[in-house]
Amino acid sequence: MSIEYLGLSEINGPLVVLEGVRNAFSEEIVEFTVNGSEKKLGRIIALYEDKAIIQVFEGTDNMSLVNTHTQLTGHPMEVALSPDILGRTFNGIGQPIDGLGNIPSDIRRNINGLPLNPVAREYPRNFIQTGISAIDGLTTLIRGQKLPIFSGDGLPHNQLAAQIVRQASLGDGSNEKFAIVFAAMGVKYDVAEYFRRTFEESGASDHVVMFLNLANDPVVERLITPKVALTAAEYLAFECHMHILVIMTDITSFAEAMREVSSSKGEIPSRKGYPGYLYSELATLYERAGIVQGVEGSVTQIPILTMPNDDITHPIPDLTGYITEGQIVLDRSLNGQAIYPPINVLPSLSRLMKDGIGEGYTREDHQDVANQLFSCYAKVGDARALASVIGEDELSPIDKKYLKFGERFEHEFVGQGQSENRTIQQTLNLGWELLGMLPKEELDRVDTKILDKYYQPAEEKKE
To answer: pLDDT tens digits, residue range 43-56?
Structure first.
C-alpha cells in the first residue's frame, strides 16, 4: 500500500524537500499532483534520515508548500521499450512527441542501466563506415568504441552529426542489422527541427530513434535524456541483436545542467564550478558503450561536446578525453577557409583504430596510408612555418611540394560535401592520389610491398 504525502518542506529551483518519508530509496520515481489536477514526475536524488531531496522533471512552477500531493512509486525511472521505437521521436524523458501514441510494450527497463562485468566485454574489432574520409581514413570508428567530437560554438558539429546519421553503415556487403539512437540535449527548436527534417528527407528516419530535450525544457530533464537514450540503445543491441550507433549532442549542456542542479543542492563546487562527481557521471554514460561476449550486437558512441572558448583543457573535454578512446577535433581556422568538415587531423586520434582496419576489415594498406598522411601533413606545418619566415619563393622544391600537398589534402581529403558519402576504398584511393604528389623516397611510413603495389607518381597519372 503506497503512502501519499501532503505538502512539501522546501522548494529550491528544480528541487523540493519532503520530510517524514519512510521506505524510500535513491533514484526512486515519485509522482506529484499539484492543485488536484496537474501531474508531475520527480526523482529522489538524496536521502537524509526522513528527508528526501527530489528533482522535479517538469520544473517546480505552480508548486507550493501546501498544494502538492506526493506519492512514491516504489521503482526507479523506467522506459517502455520495443523494436517499434525505431522511427519514433521522444522527449527527454522518453515520452512520445511525434503524435503516434505510446509504445505498446510490457518491457520496461531501468534507465540507470546495469553494471557490465569488464570480463564479459569483448574487444572492439570491426569498423563503422561514416562516409567521411577524415574519420574513416585517419580516425576510424570501431564497433563498441566511444569516440567523441570536440567542437566549438559556431562550428558545424550539428551538420556533421546529421551527416553521420544519414551515412553511417557497417560497410559494403554487411547484412547485419544496424540502427542509430540520437539524443539531443538543450538544443534550440530550430536545431531540433533541422535534425528531424534532415533525417526524414534522407530516408534515414526509419532506422533512427530520436530523443529531444529542447533548450526551453526543464534543466533536470537534460540529466535524464542520455540515460534514456542509452537504455534504448542497450535494449536494441543486446536484446534485439542490432549494432547501434549512439550520437549524443551536446554533452556540455548535460554538464552545465549538472552544475546548475548541484548549485541548487548547495554542494561545494570543483573546477569551473562543476561538481566533483562530473568525472564519474560522464564515465557512467560513456562506459555504457561496448560489446558483450556471446551476445550479437554492440553499442558505439559518438558524444559531441562544445568546448567553451575552444579550450580543450576545459574540465568537460579534459575529463572526456580520460574516459574515451580518442577524439575528433573540429578546427576554427579550417572552418574559416570554408573547409567542411573542419576536422583537424593532427590532434584527432582513434586509439582502437589499429585493431579494426587492415586486411579482412577495410583494406591491407589502410594503416600505412593513415600513418603516411599524418606524417606528411605534419611536415606541411613545418613548411608553412618556414615559408612565413623566409617567404614561399625561397623554399626548397620538396617544401613547395609539401605546401601543395597540404592545400589539396585539406580541400580534397578532409573537405567534402555534406551529401558526399565516400566508401573506404574511395577514401584510401584518394589518399594514394595525394601521396603521389610526393617523391617515393619521402614515403617512409609505408611498407615496401604496399608502396610498390599502390604508389603511382602524379606525373604518370597526367599522361
So the answer is: 998 898 889 999 89
Query: Please, are residues 439 and 456 in contact by the beta-carbon 8 Å criterion?
Result: no
Q: Are 144 and 290 in contact (CB under 8 A)?
A: yes
**Angle (nearest 5°) at CA 299 between 296 and 304:** 165
Contacts of 301 (CB under 8 A, 6+ apart): 145, 146, 147, 148, 245, 246, 247, 248, 286, 288, 289, 324
d(CA 303, CA 326): 11
Instruction: Name the nearest CA neighbour of 81 among 234, 198, 208.
Output: 234
Please identify every stretch of the chain with a pLDDT value under 70, giving residue numbers as ranges.
Answer: 1-2, 459-463
Task: Sort 187 into a burial class: Cβ within 10 Å, 0-12 / 13-18 / 19+.
Answer: buried
Alpha helices in 168-250 (DSSP H): 189-202, 219-238
| CA–CA separation, 134 and 150 (whole Å) | 14
**Cell numbers for 245:** 550507433
pTM exceeds 0.85: yes
**Angle of helix 251-264 versus helix 315-323 axis, rounded to 10:** 110
The whole-angstrom separation of Cα 337 and Cα 2 is 63
Pairwise CA distance, residues 50 & 48, whole Å: 6
